[in-house]
Design a protein that fits this description.
By secondary structure, this protein is α/β, with parallel strands linked by helices. The protein has a single domain (about 40-190, about 220-280), classed as Rossmann fold (3-Layer(aba) Sandwich), CATH 3.40.50. The protein is built from 8 helices and 12 strands. The strands form 3 sheets. It has a 7-stranded mixed β-sheet, with helices on both faces. It has a 3-stranded antiparallel β-sheet with strand order 1-7-8. Helix 1 (about 15-35) runs parallel beside helix 4, helix 2 (about 50-55) packs across helix 3 and helix 6 packs across helix 8. It is globular, with a radius of gyration of 18 Å. The protein binds S-adenosylmethionine.
Length: about 280
């Protein structure tokens, strides 16, 4: 496997997201093998991500998850979406990768869980999904793939009904600015958004040892202020902003396992955040 290479580029969003989609399509078969899907054969099993997020989200729901309509943006192969279905939600998973949604639908059918799957670029989601939801949810490795947060926040608002709740937990922009290859915490990448993308040539993925044919991807850094202000600007009211010390994937080889998640070694754990969580509502 070759070493990942990265550089800063100026590229139009449509071209960049088309390249990202080819890369994500390639990752699906690898992730179906590496995500531990057999654990879901236990009817009580929930993904670790949803176990954490459901606890954080539930205080904002009047009557818990039973019967709520939940839209999961960037749902990938459906493990988190179907975990919400197991909590009683009526779920719709949204992703631009057709193979990801095929894998999600196959998992749903194997587990006898109801779910709808919609293939669309999340930046066009409102046009592709002609209805609204009680909860719009997205998590863990989502908005770094998006070049336009105002357009993204407008989709979230269009998908929420009045009184609806938006929830995001994602990698913290300060974490993403760190050099994942170094033996100490060293800043390497831009924190601030200049409109330019970070281009990567990397044939590996975060789960499993396989490689992808389409190794070029584009990511965009978004400072925390830009994320919060995109949601406020779209008309949402921020109800919670939280920052976490652990995350569900090994960002750096130096990270250690903590309760099924990953974190910096204990002496560094209070130095930088790993995730942020935002809960916002549509009044
Ligand atoms: C890191 S995964 C999300 C992971 C999810 N938390 C999980 O582990 O199952 C990112 C997902 O975003 C999707 N994605 C990336 N850019 C997108 C876009 N512009 N529109 C829709 N989906 C997109 C990819 O296809 C992929 O399924």
């Amino acid at each position: 496997m070759s070493k990942p290479v990265t550089r800063t580029v100026r590229i139009d969003g449509d071209t960049a997201r088309a390249a990202n989609r080819e890369n994500w399509d390639d990752r699906v078969a690898l992730h179906v093998d590496a995500y531990g899907l057999e654990a879901f054969d236990d009817a009580e099993h929930l993904s670790d991500v949803v176990r954490a997020d459901a606890a954080a989200l539930e205080p904002f729901l009047a009557d818990g998850f039973e019967g709520i309509e939940l839209c999961h943006l960037q749902c990938h192969i459906g493990t988190d979406t179907l975990s919400f279905a197991r909590l009683g939600a009526r779920v719709t998973g949204v992703d631009f990768s057709a193979p990801a949604l095929e894998a999600a639908a196959a998992l749903a059918s194997r587990l006898l869980l109801d779910a709808d799957w919609v293939q669309t670029d999340v930046l066009d989601a409102a046009a592709g999904i002609d209805r609204t939801f009680d909860v719009v949810y997205t998590s863990i490795g989502a908005i770094c793939w998006l070049d336009d947060l105002d357009r993204w926040a407008a989709q979230v608002v269009a998908l929420l009904r009045p009184g609806g709740v938006f929830y995001i937990r994602d990698g913290h922009p300060v974490l993403y600015a760190l050099d994942e290859t170094r033996d100490e915490l060293v800043l390497r990448y831009r924190y601030f958004d200049t409109g330019e993308a970070q281009a990567w040539d990397d044939d590996s993925t975060y789960a499993g040892d396989g490689t992808v044919a389409h190794s070029r991807t584009y990511e965009w850094p978004h400072p925390l202020s830009a994320i919060v202000n995109a949601l406020i600007g779209a008309g949402l009211r921020i109800r919670l902003l939280d920052e976490g010390r652990t995350l569900p994937w090994r960002f750096s080889p130096r990270m250690v396992e903590v309760d099924g998640d990953y974190a910096w070694p204990e002496a560094e754990r209070d130095l930088v955040p790993c995730t942020f969580t935002i809960v916002a509502t549509m009044d």
